[in-house]
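hey m, so remember when u said the tokens were messed up on ur end? i reran from scratch. heres the input so u can diff it against urs
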Amino acid sequence: MDIMLFHSVYGLRPAVHAAADRLRAAGHEVRVPDLFEGETVSTAEEGMKLKDRIGKEELLRRAVLAAAPYSERGLVYVGLSLGGSIAQNLALGDAKARGLLLLHGTSDIAENASVDELPVQLHVADPDPFEPHDWQTAWYLRMRQAGADVEVYRYPGAGHLFTDPELPDYDERAAEETWRTALAFIGSL
């Protein structure tokens, strides 16, 4: 499977490469574009400032340019937190997308979004300050309305970026469960 993996607001750090390596070990071809062009941060607040300085439109432009050469193959889009938002936007706009795996983050959905039973899996902390329950419910309903086949997995007590061993949010049990489930999902596509 061809996978496009988008990093979180922390940038392209070793934890993102480790996630890509997990996917590669399962036999997938993984590309990990650096949307921050070499910049990384050590706090979410710094990451939000960097994201805002670059701008949403520029981040999406960079993501589209990274994915475009491979989209004819039918990509699986994967994103970590902010990267989930970007991956979702690209997957909903790519008629050949094979799947969407969201770890820790989602995005708004355009009113006219339409997909043909796109397989989507979301893994999120419960509760998550960036993905509150009412948002998740509305997001799920809008994704279903757009035609996506959605599964949501919640991890009680985990922090927002619970799969990232470099951060205080890390939860080994939840991370391993997430990766088992996510790898099975991608393997089924």
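this time it looks ok to me. The chain is about 40% helix and 20% strand. if urs says something different then somethings off w ur setup not the seq
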